[in-house]
Amino acid sequence: MFRRILVANRGEIALRVIRTCREMGIEPVAVFSDVDRKALHTRMAYNAVSLGGALPRESYLDMDKVIAAAKSTGCEAIHPGYGFLSENAEFAERVTKEGLVWIGPPPAAIRGMGDKITSRRNMTRANVPVVPGLTDPVADADAALAAAEKIGYPIMLKAAAGGGGKGMRVVRSKNDMASAFRTASGEALSSFRDGSMYMERYLDEPRHIEIQVLFDKHGHGVHFGERECSIQRRHQKLIEEAPSVVITPELRKKMGDIALAAGRAVGYENAGTVEFLYSKGDVYFLEMNTRLQVEHPVTEMVYGVDLVREQLRIAYGEELGYDQSSIQPRGWAFEVRINAEDPFNNFVPSIGTISNLRAPGGAWVRLDAALYRGMEVSLNYDPMLAKLIVWGPDRMSAIARMRRALQELNVGGVRTGAPAALRVLEDERFQRGEFDTGFLGTLDLSKPSEGEDLIVAAAAAIHRHLLARRRALGTSASSRGAWQARSRERHTNYPPHRPEAARAKEAQR
Amino acid sequence: MFRRILVANRGEIALRVIRTCREMGIEPVAVFSDVDRKALHTRMAYNAVSLGGALPRESYLDMDKVIAAAKSTGCEAIHPGYGFLSENAEFAERVTKEGLVWIGPPPAAIRGMGDKITSRRNMTRANVPVVPGLTDPVADADAALAAAEKIGYPIMLKAAAGGGGKGMRVVRSKNDMASAFRTASGEALSSFRDGSMYMERYLDEPRHIEIQVLFDKHGHGVHFGERECSIQRRHQKLIEEAPSVVITPELRKKMGDIALAAGRAVGYENAGTVEFLYSKGDVYFLEMNTRLQVEHPVTEMVYGVDLVREQLRIAYGEELGYDQSSIQPRGWAFEVRINAEDPFNNFVPSIGTISNLRAPGGAWVRLDAALYRGMEVSLNYDPMLAKLIVWGPDRMSAIARMRRALQELNVGGVRTGAPAALRVLEDERFQRGEFDTGFLGTLDLSKPSEGEDLIVAAAAAIHRHLLARRRALGTSASSRGAWQARSRERHTNYPPHRPEAARAKEAQR
Amino acid sequence: MKYYITVNGKEHQVDVVERLGVLDVTVDGKTLELDYEEVDNLGQVAVLCDGKSYGLSIEGDEHKLSATIAGHLYAVEIEDERERAAHAAERAQAKGGGLVKAVMPGIVVKLLVKEGDTVVKDQPLLILEAMKMQNEITAPSDGVVKVVHVREREAVSGGAKLVLLATAT
Amino acid sequence: MKYYITVNGKEHQVDVVERLGVLDVTVDGKTLELDYEEVDNLGQVAVLCDGKSYGLSIEGDEHKLSATIAGHLYAVEIEDERERAAHAAERAQAKGGGLVKAVMPGIVVKLLVKEGDTVVKDQPLLILEAMKMQNEITAPSDGVVKVVHVREREAVSGGAKLVLLATAT
Hints:
The complex is a heterotetramer, with two copies of chain A and two copies of chain C.
Chain A: E1 4-7, H1 11-24, E2 27-32, H2 40-43, E3 47-50, H3 63-72, E4 77-79, H4 89-97, E5 101-102, H5 107-112, H6 116-125, H7 141-151, E6 155-163, E7 166-171, H8 177-192, E8 197-201, E9 207-215, E10 221-233, E11 236-242, H9 249-265, E12 270-279, E13 282-289, H10 296-303, H11 307-316, E14 332-339, E15 341-342, E16 348-349, E17 352-353, E18 356-358, E19 365-369, E20 376-377, E21 384-392, H12 395-408, E22 410-412, H13 418-426, H14 428-432, H15 439-442, H16 453-473, E23 482-484, H17 500-508
Parallel strand pairs in A: 1-2, 1-4, 2-3, 4-5
Antiparallel strand pairs in A: 6-7, 6-8, 9-10, 9-12, 10-11, 11-14, 12-13, 14-21, 15-16, 17-20, 18-22, 19-21
Chain C: E1 2-7, E2 10-19, E3 22-27, E4 30-32, E5 34-38, E6 44-49, E7 52-60, E8 64-69, E9 72-80, H1 81-94, E10 98-101, E11 106-111, E12 118-119, E13 124-130, E14 133-138, E15 143-148, E16 155-156, E17 161-166
Antiparallel strand pairs in C: 1-2, 1-9, 2-3, 3-4, 5-6, 6-7, 7-8, 8-9, 10-17, 11-13, 11-16, 12-15, 13-14, 15-17
């Protein structure tokens, strides 16, 4: 196995890869931008190399720096995580050319799936079913309007070079096309330097379902069933689960076969995900993500497999060593992405300093995070702070466990989308499995929670009162943390837990 | 199912029970002593009732107060956790008499296994193999000396009414008997108000192995295989695992059958553990613990079962609903107890305020704890702060995962036994499975770790230097957290990550 | 002391009176029997009230904070009597028009209106890019653009003034 | 500044010189290229040195602290030159006999010696109960009991003086 590898990423995924490396006896080397000097991934790595800069393009996206870091520290391979350079075929090529091992698919496979239009052509050739739409992108709103007439509304606009929900819009009538095209294309231009848009039919009750595949370098390929990722806001996933309530064993087998065929069509190696749109029993190929997915942990929990370990084994040249028949799901898993965002204000980003942290614990609860007290959450990077994952023997018990875990979690200092996830998990339609990718939009998140308003009002008043009192009295009073409203002792039948002597002493302070 | 229950305990086990209640839709009511007012188990419960007092006998051991708390809050049942009143038959009786459900075995079963001598008699009658020794306890050192001649050295002294390692001593020759009897009997007297001691032969290469059993109220009983708990200091468990390397499927079946017979002999219901001494292929009944064990999570991880959920279901009167054939182990699990103690000073207790916390994360890592920043660790209660549990597909990968998790864990403010656990897990004999209950004593924990001494020396000097500097300059300098020793930029080929301008500015501070 | 506390948009009046080291707390005229205990200096609070236990996390300052109970977030604004009077006056001044502020930090990618333009409710005023997402900032009501506070390509912080609208006449 | 730093019983000499905002650190005569960064004010420190990264947790005060690296604990004592001289004098005074201190807080259950008794190394002096465990406190060396600082049933804190031994003559 590799002795030392470079982890060319940051945040929870860098830590995720570092953890598996440590467990395998591999020395993980981290890289960091100036703002990440103190990040957990640098502290938990065997070594950490400065890339300089604060912006991604000055650091994690700078191929020269990343490759130099790997070579100067004696690394044998590079794991790209997700995002950043993970789906960059040019980078994968350069890594290989420098004599390093690329822990991911071959550059040709990345290119074959790289943009939606190329992959659509490849898949159509391989008889993989795709969503009705144009094969070629359109460059301006007028062309989009014309094409939409042929495809029929509603239309989904997607950045041709896109991903991660950026540059995507649903257009429900021609009146909305110009505005939607302008913003989506603008996002695409700024994110991917390519404003051209791909158009396809927006399907009814669409559900986002994807298949995890693994291919070794010896011609073996297997799939690890499906994940459902239909709970999305702004076209970005918020809650994922495995398996999916709408996938029967037959459909799982069919989708698995399609996914393996899709991978083989481009000579795939290592871990990948084939995304499908599910609509009323039919499935359509959307795209293939040629890297580890954010939501890979739900598959790990259900199949008992460490996918990063498999990636490293495959990249080193090992054979899979097992076949499809030995891969059986057990129970149900959910993941909630904890993003720095305000769910009650259209999920706009929230920034700040992490002032307090309470991690959920207990059985079958997994927290993949790189959070620490004192961490600055800025706009420089992706707002995902953590992923909370739970497993349960069945879907309802997994939902109950996730609700319990979300109730325990506290990330102080920024707002997170966790309350929105809790609302989804509490919803009976969700619990029954009746939802599609539009589900989150149907919830009225601005509706105030009920029942605890008076407690919150009282606590807020006391909080302010104590702040003011401390300011007035100076630091000497700051240790005074207990306040009791009158008559509390009437609650119970035995003597009050605060003896009179102590109470009198407090009054004198 | 119950609508509301009282959790008559504190610390991690109270939180453990509360978590399962929340997941099952049961309202858990906590109780707390004065020093535990702010404890996590009070904050995560549906309601929390003050018991007053600081010492256990003034609070968690006060039957009147606990029962009053349950009745005044409308609870239907009481879960005792472990320790405190969990194995008190009188309490179990009173709970039932008050019209509440006791979540545990019937009082007669507790009594039948209650002290080692009664249980030994019961088991001998039921043809369960026991360790050679006396059936009756001895009251003084002279009687012990006489009896030891018959049994033969080495001798194990155990408090007749004991548990938890208190009042236990190994006596290797008659010269040590008087001193050992004095301290062990003194401990027993102070802990259990009974100084009489039970004597038995101390077996060679003993390993502590126990079987988890469940009996419902309808005559069904199953076992969930074994746990091995041989890594002990001061006769208290430090590391537990499931399964055990020395237990073959045949021996597992044999021990399971003995454990079920032992339970049936006393009319057992609910969860219990039958402890065995394993020596060179033979097993001997030690005792039955008539409650949930501290180390139950390793069984949960390997069998995918929530044992607290099963306890609640059984107490409510539900049938198990599965039989022995459906219970199959998967993979390997370890638990490390994180106690407030100094492993480099004979594991003496460590007290203090938890000033910092870093919980380990990632896949298949479970932390059962009730720790929070600001918590006072005092001598009032058991020193166990947390339990760290991991699962892996095989023993070596689970060991590697536990090492990784222990490396991530940080409990600042008190010393913990975690470094000792790490030493055990790093030991090749342990990794090969070659150990017995004396293993921890064979490790030289005082031997300094190597290699990082210079780094620690340098960091300590800088730490002190900065403390002194801040004190001299006042608070204005306190935000200065970064210091670079000279020439660091020579490590890498690209520009230093701290621009010259910033560096010059720092020099002026 | 009397406080006006808005929780998720609904206002409550809370009186806090300190007497012999014990706090009397009245919410909307009802006296609460409440045990309030600060766990640390980072906003963790243990509250017992009316047969229930609450583990609160409080984040924010004396005017605006968020309180989280078991994962549910409550947005809270706090005013004492003096502040309430001052804010009422401010609100009266701005009536009918309004100041559009940046809901998040970002970069102004495109201005879609200029000073003097008449706009209708929900009309896009500008595009603000944050976290690589482009967001159309729309008019909260019909009106006339009185001041445009920003320029294209300008980076703005959260809460920064973007556009001032006056009532359409 | 020169420090004498004992790590797990082994002494190192460390020089720290601050120059233009950069620290020169020399350990046992060897200059370390070291990047030391405090993560928070609670003892978390990120150190880069000689091709390795260390996440340290430092707990303690300026004289005595523990440093944890990846789960391994290092006990550290720090002296500057003045303190070292003072401590050396103390050690010289106590030579041969010694003060037995409580290694943990607890209750003195039984005294097994009285003033004037002659004791041999490892002889039990008293029984200290802590966390419900009874611990025999033994003589660190042969000697004569000079002072017994505690009484039976007395509660003592960690580090409290128990028994003063003088050299056996």
